[in-house]
């Protein structure tokens, strides 16, 4: 079987797995597993919008590919908010924006940790870990996988926050540090993933943060959904 580059997303009502061609969202409906399936349509260059074209070009270059995430609505809103605050409160803009980023990081924790999202997040990681370790995807095997994944989105968030907090400590302009955070965080996380043994201590720290703050021990129903959804994706991919 050819390897599929799988990405996963957990949400309150289930899990979504993305493959090379298909995206499968799994959820429960009257205690039965249901799927929402989407097949990607390859767009021609002229069919891409402005932001999609920028993202497509940036993906070919290290460091620049992280900057492509600056063109999301959330990042653009943050930049616009900084500009507005800078005009209104001048030198205090840095403190407000650093505090806002830290607050948004903290407030996201209970929204994930203490909801179904945290359990589905764990199940998502455990299913992907089983697949990447070439282990049969069944409830028993997935139950024995760890909840940490080195390329989880939370690791990118943690790395960006670390960079931003460094800027706050040394009173560096927020906008500069915000751009730097996106510029280098993706490359750092991918480099750490490629060199797990060399940076085992850092992975232990990231694992502790990720598992403690962003996951909750799943029940069998969460694992069952992850197994069925990922198996559905693999079957559709036909690899």
Provide a compact summary of the structure:
With 239 residues, this protein is of the alpha+beta class. It has helices spanning 50-58, 64-67, 73-89, 93-113, 116-132, 139-143, 153-169, 174-194, 200-214, 220-237; strands at residues 7-11, 14-18, 22-29, 32-39. α3 (73-89) packs antiparallel against α4 (93-113), α4 (93-113) packs antiparallel against α7 and α5 (116-132) packs across α10 (220-237).
Q: How would you summarize the topology of this molecule?
A:
Elements: E1 7-11, E2 14-18, E3 22-29, E4 32-39, H1 50-58, H2 64-67, H3 73-89, H4 93-113, H5 116-132, H6 139-143, H7 153-169, H8 174-194, H9 200-214, H10 220-237
Antiparallel strand pairs: 1-2, 2-3, 3-4
Task: Provide key terms for this protein.
single chain; about 240 residues; 4-stranded antiparallel beta sheet
Protein described:
By secondary structure, the chain is an alpha+beta fold. The chain contains ten helices and four strands. It has a four-stranded antiparallel sheet with strand order 1-2-3-4, covered by helices on one side. Helix 3 packs antiparallel against helix 4, helix 4 runs antiparallel to helix 7 and helix 5 (116-132) packs across helix 10. The radius of gyration is 19 Å and the shape is globular. The model has no long low-confidence stretch (mean pLDDT 92).
